[in-house]
Structure formats: C-alpha cells, structure tokens
Design a protein that fits this description.
alpha+beta, Arc Repressor Mutant, subunit A, Alpha-Beta Plaits, 3 domains, 4-stranded antiparallel beta sheet, 3-stranded antiparallel beta sheet, 12 helices, 7 strands, 52% helix, globular, disordered C terminus, PaaX_C
Length: 264
C-alpha cells in the first residue's frame, strides 16, 4: 500500500504500514475497547480492520511483518506464545509524536515575537533542522528566515541550538502588544503567516463529515488529529470569530470519549 494512499485513508495522520498498524492497535485497545491493555494476535488484525477497512487490504503476511517490525523496534510486546499484544512505553512515545494533543489552556502575555536567523548556506542541513523545529513549536513563516510566534521560545530555541551545535546567529525580538510588521496589521499578519481561514475550513469539513457520516468514527478521529497536527494552537484571544477549531474539538471529544485518558 503506497504512502500517499495510507495518508489518504487515515486523513493524513500516518504514512507507513507500521504506523498504521500501531495506531490501529492503539485505537482498538484504548478507544474501541475502552482502555484494555492487551489484544490477541488474531484480534489485532480484526480490530484493525474494524478501525479502517483498508487495513484488510494489508494482506496477512504484510500485516504480520509490520507487527514483527513493531516488536523489533520495541514498540509492542507479545506473550511467549505470541497470542497477546500490548503497546510498550516506547510505542506510546512514538504515538505521542504521531498524535497531537489539544491545548485547552493557552496563556498569553499579549506580545508577538519575531525570530530571525542568519545561518550560512553551506549548513543547509542545520537550516532545515531549524525550520522543522520552528514549525513544530508553532512558529509561522513570514518570509525567508523570518518567523513569528505569540510565544517567547527563547529558552527552548537556545537549548535546541546548543544540543545540535548550530552555527550562525538567531535572534528573538518582541513586537510588543498589538504589534505589526511593515505593511501588515496584526490580524493580517496572523492570517498571512498561519492561513487560519484554510485551517478553519478543514475543521468545518470535519464537522460536516461527523454529522453526515457518524459511523465512520475511526477515520473521523484520525482526520481531526491530522488537522490538529497542522494547527499552531494560537492563543484563543487572537483567533478569528468564525474559528471552527473549538467546535471541531467538541465534536471530536464525543467521537472519542476515552481518547485523552488513553494518551496518558
């Protein structure tokens, strides 16, 4: 099964067969079975098929190979007779990287920050690492080498730079409250950088899908999580009035009542 196809059937949440099987196990154990900690080997594939019909397309041989890979990587364990499967602490750590968490509390001091950097082009690998990290912590790209964020990430940026020995200059500057950059006013800046209107539309489509196809719970759960992974989760006070993220989260909670407890 191709990577693009896997992303399509899981709403963009996972792109490999092993991650699909791992998340299927997690979904079945923690959501479908309400917090059970183990599953029979035969039940694993059946549970996966119930979670996503497409898992059935993973022929048994490939499914078992994915299970072996998960076990070899220490992401799952099985009993001596291989009849029971459980997700390990390492497996849950892997899932925590795949599965984003919705931030219900988002304290903010009202200040926006600009992050600029000057890293020599010969260090492209380091530049790419930094870009990936900035996006991961919710920063938005304004233009080449210029990022903005409502949070002061000076400390974690310093740690990241020191751990990886990045060379070059990285500056974090305050815009002040209600600040602007050049021709962009505050609201325009947020939309340009984070494209919240497109993100809100994706949440709206998720809500519509939950309304018209409520039985397809597993796909809807993964679809919401894939949208949330792209959501910078900005402070509630600066989100547009028509923002659909909070309403989508309420719908998600009803779809996966045990989900938040399961991630712990």
């Amino acid at each position: 099964m191709a990577k693009l196809e896997l992303k399509k059937i899981t709403g963009g949440l996972v792109g490999t067969a092993t991650d699909l099987v791992l998340f299927s196990l997690f979904y079945s154990l923690e959501i479908g079975l309400g917090g059970s900690r183990s599953l029979t080997m035969g039940g694993a594939q059946c549970a996966g098929e119930r979670a996503w019909e497409s898992v059935a397309e993973l022929e048994r041989q490939r499914f078992e190979r994915a299970l072996r890979q998960l076990k070899d990587k220490g992401l799952i364990t099985s009993s001596l007779d291989s009849t029971q499967i459980a997700i390990t602490k390492m497996g849950r750590e892997r899932l925590s990287r795949l599965i984003p968490a919705y931030q219900e509390k988002r304290p903010w001091n009202g200040v926006f920050y600009v992050i600029t950097y000057d890293i020599p082009t010969k260090h492209n690998k380091e530049r790419n690492l930094l870009r990936i990290f900035l996006k991961k912590i919710g920063c938005g790209l304004l233009q080449e080498s210029v990022w903005v964020t409502p949070y002061n990430h000076s400390y974690i940026l310093k740690e990241f730079i020191e751990e990886r020995g990045l060379q070059g200059t990285i500056l974090v500057s305050s815009l002040g409250k209600g600040g602007a950059i050049g021709e962009y006013k505050f609201a325009e800046l947020i939309e340009k950088v984070y494209k919240l209107s497109k993100l809100s539309e994706r949440y709206r489509e998720f809500i519509d899908g939950a309304k018209h196809q409520p039985r397809n719970k597993s796909y809807l759960v993964s679809l919401f999580l894939s949208i949330l992974r792209d959501d910078p989760q900005l402070p509630f006070g600066i989100l547009p009035k028509d923002w659909e993220g909070m309403r989508a989260y309420e719908v998600f909670q009803k779809l996966a009542l045990h989900f938040d407890n399961a991630r712990a």
